[in-house]
Amino acid sequence: MVTDSNSVMARWRNHFSQLFSVHDVNDVRHTEIHTAVPLVPEPSAFEVEMAIDKLKRHKSSGNDQFPAELIKAGDRTIHIQIYKHINSIWNKWNYLRS
């Protein structure tokens, strides 16, 4: 029976190396998976609008200190700016992942 953490990690590394035919994996934490397409598609304006519609009223605001009532009361211009901001964050995150 393997009980120390180094032996356990070595056993799992060996298991997954054989399972996925991965060779020369020294540290599982540093193994990266590169894909040609994003794993999460870019959010659409419709999805952002639907998320805004689903915001619950009379709840505490988050770290941004914007209450849901303020966001929901905003007109289309504000919703478009929120959508642009979300896409900007998504694109930066996607760029950093690649």
Q: Give the integer mean of the pLDDT values.
A: 80
Calculate Rg over CA atoms: 22 Å
Helix content: 55-70%
Number of helices: 4
Provide the β-strand percentage band: under 5%
Question: CA-to-CA gap between the ends?
Answer: 40 Å
What letter string, H or E per element, gives the SSE order?
HHHH
Low-confidence stretches: none
Shape: elongated
Instruction: Write down how many β-strands occur, each being a DSSP E stretch of 2 or more residues.
Output: 0
Described by strand count, sense and barrel closure, the largest sheet is: none
Q: Count up the domains.
A: 2
Task: Classify the secondary structure makeup into a structural class.
Answer: mainly alpha
Oligomer: single chain
